[in-house]
């Protein structure tokens, strides 16, 4: 079976963002190790996801046979995003920190893939994620130094785990707005980890 990787980028600097550059390096190494593998790219800045509205919510919760043409189009768009992430064994995310959290474009993407009965379901034992058996690597770029014990990391773990993706590794690139040795050490450590993962 052909290996598949989904890369999701959310930096406003697009391919020039530090999180994007490191994610791209990892993807290039992955392609070398998986020459017949398929890479699916989702750039949330080049192709913004529409914000979730009441109309979307109603479309998702209307039985298929009762949906209007407009509702069908909304659900179809969400289905495409879910099909991409469902097909991938490896998910690579470039995630800068904006105002102490994830970019709004990434949050909007999450809004479209979190669908009851499709990517998670409620059981007698609580919610159960359905996007399982995936390795997620998050390249988290930050201007300051915040470490792993931060709300941004906690939210990503909580959301990804909610839809079934519990094997998550964070590679932090911190201090990007701070000149000096600490910034360079962080970049070097991130690059070493990419090599180790390849």
Features:
Rossmann fold, alpha/beta, 7 strands, five-stranded parallel β-sheet, two-stranded antiparallel ribbon, 21% strand, 41% helix, 198 residues, single chain
Commentary on this structure:
The chain is an alpha/beta fold. It has one domain (4-197): 3-Layer(aba) Sandwich (Rossmann fold), CATH 3.40.50.360. 41% of the residues lie in helices and 21% in strands. It is built from six helices and seven strands, in the order E-H-E-H-H-E-H-E-E-E-H-E-H. The strands form two sheets. It has a five-stranded parallel beta sheet with strand order 2-1-3-6-7, with helices on both faces. Helix 5 (151-162) links the parallel strand 6 and strand 7. Helix 1 packs parallel to helix 6 (181-197) and helix 2 crosses helix 3. The longest helix is centred in the middle third of the chain and has 19 residues, at 69-87. It is globular and about 60 Å long. The relative contact order is 0.17.
Write a brief caption for the model.
With 198 residues, the protein is of the alpha/beta class. It has a single domain (4-197), classed as Flavodoxin domain (Rossmann fold).
């Amino acid at each position: 079976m052909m290996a598949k990787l989904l890369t999701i980028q959310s930096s406003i600097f697009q391919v020039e963002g530090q999180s994007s550059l490191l994610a791209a390096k990892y993807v290039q190494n992955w392609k070398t190790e998986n020459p017949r593998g398929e890479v699916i790219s989702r750039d949330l800045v080049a192709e913004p996801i529409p914000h979730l509205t009441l109309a979307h919510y109603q479309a998702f919760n209307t039985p298929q046979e009762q949906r209007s043409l407009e509702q069908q189009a909304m659900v179809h768009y969400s289905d495409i995003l879910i099909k991409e992430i469902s097909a991938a064994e490896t998910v690579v995310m470039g995630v800068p920190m904006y105002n102490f959290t994830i970019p709004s474009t990434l949050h909007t993407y999450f809004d479209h893939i979190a669908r009851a009965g499709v990517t998670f379901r409620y059981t007698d034992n609580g919610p159960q994620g359905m996007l399982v058996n995936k390795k997620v690597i998050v390249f988290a770029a930050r201007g300051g130094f915040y470490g792993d014990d931060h709300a941004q990391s906690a939210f990503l773990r909580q959301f990804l785990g909610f839809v079934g993706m519990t094997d998550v590794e964070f590679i932090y690139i911190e201090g990007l707005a701070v000149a000096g040795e600490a910034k360079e050490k962080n970049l070097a450590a991130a690059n070493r980890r990419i090599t180790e993962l390849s």
